[in-house]
Amino acid sequence: xxxxxxxxxxxxxxxxxxxxxxxxxxxxxxxxxxxxxxxxxxxxxxxxxxxxxxxxxxxxxxxxxxxxxxxxxxxxxxxxxxxxxxxxxxxxxxxxxxxxxxxxxxxxxxxxxxxxxxxxxxxxxxxxxxxxxxxxxxxxxxxxxxxxxxxxxxxxxxxxxxxxxxxxxxxxxxxxxxxxxxxxxxxxxxxxxxxxxxxxx
Length: 201
Ligand code: ADP
What we know:
This protein is an alpha/beta fold and 201 residues long. It has helices at residues 14-23, 31-41, 43-53, 66-75, 77-104, 136-147, 151-160, 164-170, 181-200, and strands at residues 2-7, 27-30, 109-114, 128-133, 173-176. A five-stranded parallel beta sheet has the order 2-3-1-4-5, with helices on both faces. Adenosine-5'-diphosphate binds at residues 8, 10-16, 142, 146, 177, 179-181, 184.
């Protein structure tokens, strides 16, 4: 079974790309949702985050205050690094577990989808790393439509993520999503075909 990392900034089209791979039989592991689940559901991680950021990291209903946490992470590189150190290992454990289960279930591939590049020391758990990128204006437009957010808010989010070159420099393959949704689907099918051939070779 092949382990594929798929990453790209907000609105690049990575979730759509992953959904096409899922249709072909890949198991998709959404690392960002898993990170959120770990931050909410794992008592020792909650404690570590509260020690780092204070009680306002969580809302009264117990969910993560994503606005508060994002603001802290954005303005404080040390907090950003620390939160990664707290959360990444647990997400990685879950990924390795999911990969084992996918192997047992006979899946041909597992896809680890995340907005940020996997940390360097986790790169070994992936056989191939694919980056989806798209022109900035397309990303802004698509996320405004999808999330009903003001343009400025979307541009701020894009600017808070790494630049295209940073993603590219780590990638084995880059998909440029600057055409139609059908074009993106065709790219996903082409990639899938190539992966399956490589695996059976
Ligand atoms: P990401 O997961 O990288 O944030 P998505 O895959 O959710 O991005 O895509 C963002 C939005 O843009 C979705 O609503 C998706 O349907 C749309 N989209 C993605 N690629 C295209 C495309 N090539 N043409 C038109 N809309 C697209």
